[in-house]
Design brief:
This protein is α+β, with helices and mostly antiparallel strands and about 120 residues long. The protein is built from three helices and five strands; from the N terminus they run H-H-E-E-E-E-E-H. A hairpin with a 4-residue loop joins strand 1 and strand 2. This is PRC-barrel domain-containing protein.
Length: about 120
Amino acid sequence: MTLVDKPADCDVCTALTRQRDAARLAGRHATVQSRNAEIANHRQFFLSIDEIAVGAVVYDRDSDMVGMVRGIGGVLVQLERPTHLRWEVPYTRLRPGTEWEQKQLAALARLQRDRERGRS
């Protein structure tokens, strides 16, 4: 069985590695293989600004937050959260958002809509 590792600065890879190691200790070989495949295929960063599209969900490693791309200018990407927080970050500090992070952002958007309607 091939052991796949990625740099420790990726929070997703770190979590997947922990899950893989726990599965290995529990003898769950299918989970070990699945986590290895996820780690091997996980994108940790963008190679160029051209890979980022307006509307994409990305993770900012500097602010430790998920945001939606609202604009791109030079090497800076403008991000926004459903709470209307906006900021700019160099594209080299971003990685694609995971499926879980996309769901997290959607849940935050629903909560914000409810707050703006006075339900919360």
